[in-house]
C-alpha cells in the first residue's frame, strides 16, 4: 500500500529540479551579459578619438618636368646642349614625381655641363601626416644627406621657394673633376632638387663654385614658377 502513495517517481522529480537550475543560470547570465555589453559599447564609443583634420594640399599636380626650365636658361647654362627639350626621367606617377636633364660639351666641345631637375609632390595621409609636413621632412633629409658628402658643404639660400639650401663641392669621376652645385628647395608640399655640374675637358678650366651655384638657383626659380603655373 505504501508504494501506491508515490504519485511522482523519484527520477522525474530529480529531472524537474535539474531543469530548474539551468533556467535560473541562463536567466542570470542573460541579464548580466546584456548589461556588460551596453557598458562596453558605451566605454568604446566614449574613448574613440576623432580623426584629425589635415590641411589641404597646396599643389595637386606637377608640371611637365622638361618644361620646368625655360629654353633661355637651358641655353645659358648648357651651351650646345644635345637636346634643348631635355631627357625626361621615367616615372610611374607623373602627378607625384618627375625629372628631366640636359647635357652638352659647350661651344668649343671642351666645357662639359649637366643640368637636372627632380620634383617630388606629397599628398596628405592620416598615417603619414599633412602633405606639407611630409615635404618639410623630405627637404631636411635631402639637405642633410647631400651635405655629408666629403668636400661638400650646405648653406641656406634666401628668396627661393618657402625654404632652400645650396650644396656645393667637387667630385671626380673617371679622372675628370667637376664643380658641382645643387639647390634643394621646397614650395608647399613640393620638393625640388636642381643639380648643375661643370668640368673643363682636355686641360680647360672648370667653372667656379659661384657660377654653378648661381646657375642652379636660376634653374630652381624657373622650376618653382612652373609648379605654381601648373596649379593656377
TL;DR?
The protein is α+β, with helices and mostly antiparallel strands. The protein has helices at 10-47, 71-77, 131-147, 209-230; strands spanning 87-88, 97-104, 111-121, 153-157, 163-173, 176-187, 190-200. Residues 1-38 and 40-46 have low confidence and may be disordered.
Could you describe the 3D structure shown?
Helices cover 36% and strands 26% of the residues. With 232 residues, the protein is an alpha+beta fold. The chain has helices at residues 10-47, 71-77, 131-147, 209-230, and strands at residues 87-88, 97-104, 111-121, 153-157, 163-173, 176-187, 190-200. A seven-stranded antiparallel sheet has the order 1-2-3-7-6-5-4. It has two domains: 2-47; 65-230, Protein Transport Mog1p, Chain A (3-Layer(aba) Sandwich), CATH 3.40.1000. The protein is built from four helices and seven strands. The radius of gyration is 36 Å and the shape is globular.
Write the layout of secondary structure elements.
Layout: H1 10-47, H2 71-77, E1 87-88, E2 97-104, E3 111-121, H3 131-147, E4 153-157, E5 163-173, E6 176-187, E7 190-200, H4 209-230
Antiparallel strand pairs: 1-2, 2-3, 3-7, 4-5, 5-6, 6-7
Amino acid at each position: 500500500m505504501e508504494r501506491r502513495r508515490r504519485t511522482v517517481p523519484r527520477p522525474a522529480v530529480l529531472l524537474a529540479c535539474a531543469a530548474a537550475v539551468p533556467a535560473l543560470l541562463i536567466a542570470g547570465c542573460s541579464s548580466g551579459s546584456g548589461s556588460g555589453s551596453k557598458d562596453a559599447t558605451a566605454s568604446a564609443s566614449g574613448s574613440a578619438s576623432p580623426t584629425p583634420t589635415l590641411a589641404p594640399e597646396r599643389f595637386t599636380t606637377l608640371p611637365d618636368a622638361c618644361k620646368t626650365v625655360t629654353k633661355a636658361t637651358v641655353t645659358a647654362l648648357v651651351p650646345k646642349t644635345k637636346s634643348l627639350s631635355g631627357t625626361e626621367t621615367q616615372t610611374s606617377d607623373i602627378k607625384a614625381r618627375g625629372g628631366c636633364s640636359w647635357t652638352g660639351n659647350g661651344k668649343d666641345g671642351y666645357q662639359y655641363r649637366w643640368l637636372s631637375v627632380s620634383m617630388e609632390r606629397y599628398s596628405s595621409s592620416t598615417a603619414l601626416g599633412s602633405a606639407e609636413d611630409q615635404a618639410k621632412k623630405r627637404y631636411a633629409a635631402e639637405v642633410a644627406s647631400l651635405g655629408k658628402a666629403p668636400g661638400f658643404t650646405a648653406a641656406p639660400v634666401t628668396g627661393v621657394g618657402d625654404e632652400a639650401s645650396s650644396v656645393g663641392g667637387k667630385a671626380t669621376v673617371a679622372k675628370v673633376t667637376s664643380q658641382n652645385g645643387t639647390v634643394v628647395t621646397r614650395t608647399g608640399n613640393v620638393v625640388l632638387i636642381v643639380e648643375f655640374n661643370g668640368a673643363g675637358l682636355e686641360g680647360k678650366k672648370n667653372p667656379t663654385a659661384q657660377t654653378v651655384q648661381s646657375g642652379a638657383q636660376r634653374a630652381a626659380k624657373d622650376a618653382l614658377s612652373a609648379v605654381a603655373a601648373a596649379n593656377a
